[in-house]
DNA sequence: CACAAACGAGAGCAGTGCTCTTGACATCGG
DNA sequence: CCGATGTCAAGAGCACTGCTCTCGTTTGTG
């Protein structure tokens, strides 16, 4: 299985790896539209048509890189989460969100690839749907542990989820979310949305001349979102209330 | 002034307008990277090099289109806001956010241009910074009216803004925000971030197989954000509390 | 051993952004 | 009124792109 039989297959797998490695480097330097199959081939010392033996088109190579990027950020978040004590819920939540931001800042072009404008005529294939949900899964796992520990206390002064969300909530509850109310599930999606919105805004320059200490502002937003879904805030961040 | 003197100047202005119109149509159809100077020229019945007399490079044409897009969405929001009674604060807030979403859904490629991945080596020039803040200004205006009416009641169970935000808050308070606390200003920025994050997620397919009734979910998120900044919720959405 | 599949190399097609030169035209000063 | 000046569209051309096709050659297998 893992040990490819023939030398040809081993060479093929190795070459695919090399192509992806070079492509990823070029992607990191020049961005998605700057990724050139010919340039990749040139750097590898072969001719452009040879690359087409391994990736039938430029978009296929791009798709492979997108999947790698999803895996990369997904693994970064999961590793961060796994390194923390399970009972430190808010610490895990904050760390996971920070991991997303840190990864994005370290890999701006790859982040743009997976959370930015889809390339020209490029439609995200089905293969990219599953890895895209990994980060959401990690955050949902924290919610699950919070629910199991009985510490989930969502604020009651927010509007109720719309009735049309009930079916979605039921499906999500079956697959990745703990058995919490529709409200909490939708708020978790809102939080998930915000995290990526904030990272995108920061990366695409929207906070220029607006927010200086973006790391601190990001943490603050993440804690606000945690409060919204019902996670207990750390003592230092809990406001004075009677 | 407005009446250009020579026939040559008039012809030039007219041609610039035509180029931008054709380019915008092509942009709407094929996206940013699908915008081809040669194709624009072809459709206008002239040769590619002639276009360079009016736009020194493809990026300059793109920049012009970006500015137009900012103006377009900015005007859409402001017109929406102006059409509502000033005292209907939450109605204006909701309508403005909906206007952003509606515009983005109607002009996905242009939205991607201004809030998606920056094009390859393209760095957003200074001209695009000012029009980018128009939408934020509209939302801040609602906050201003709410503060003036004395109905701003931000929840107290959220963490306080970090100290490092004080300088930014002071500057923003001088320019576009009403004299409210640092907390409220930062929460408004969080809300602003969320709105665009949600629109981007929807547009880029992140809600596929997650949220079905995206309009309702968007409204719900917008109301949650309104509650977070302290706007009074409409009666129908206010949860039962004592 | 023979045959088929896989392979690298090269030529070629249609397209791109952009530059440079050329010749026609309009505008303005003397 | 006429010539100098500047603007214009057009075309050729450069370097690049994704992609296809055809060559021999190499490699693995029946």
TrEMBL record, chains A, B:
GO molecular function terms listed in the Swiss-Prot or TrEMBL record: DNA-binding transcription factor activity; transcription cis-regulatory region binding
DNA-binding region location: 36-55
Residues in HTH tetR-type domain copies: 13-73
Record carries keyword Transcription: yes
Keywords (A to Z) from UniProt: DNA-binding, Transcription, Transcription regulation
PANTHER family cross-referenced by the UniProt entry: HTH-TYPE TRANSCRIPTIONAL REGULATOR RUTR, HTH-TYPE TRANSCRIPTIONAL REGULATOR RV1816
Annotated protein name in UniProt: TetR family transcriptional regulator
């Amino acid at each position: 299985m893992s040990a490819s039989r023939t030398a040809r297959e081993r060479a093929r797998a190795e070459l695919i790896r090399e192509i992806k490695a070079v492509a990823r480097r070029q992607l990191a330097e020049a961005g998605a539209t700057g990724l050139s199959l010919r340039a990749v081939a040139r750097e590898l010392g072969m001719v452009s048509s040879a690359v087409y033996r391994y990736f039938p088109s430029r978009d296929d190579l791009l798709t492979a890189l997108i999947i790698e990027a999803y895996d990369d950020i997904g693994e970064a978040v999961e590793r961060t989460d796994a390194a923390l004590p399970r009972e430190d819920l808010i610490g895990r939540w904050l760390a996971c969100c920070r991991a997303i931001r840190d990864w994005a800042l370290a890999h701006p072009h790859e982040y743009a690839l997976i959370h930015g404008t889809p390339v020209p005529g490029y439609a995200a294939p089905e293969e990219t749907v599953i890895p895209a949900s990994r980060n959401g899964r990690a955050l949902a796992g924290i919610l699950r542990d919070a629910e199991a520990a009985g510490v989930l206390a969502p604020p009651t002064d927010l509007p109720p989820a719309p009735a049309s969300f009930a079916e979605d909530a039921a499906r999500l509850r079956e697959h990745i979310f703990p058995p919490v109310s529709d409200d909490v599930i939708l708020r978790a999606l809102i939080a998930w949305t915000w995290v990526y919105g904030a990272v995108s805004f920061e990366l695409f320059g929207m906070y220029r001349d607006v927010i200086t200490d973006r790391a601190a502002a990001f943490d603050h937003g993440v804690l606000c979102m945690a409060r919204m879904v019902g996670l207990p805030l750390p003592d230092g961040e809990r406001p004075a209330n009677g």
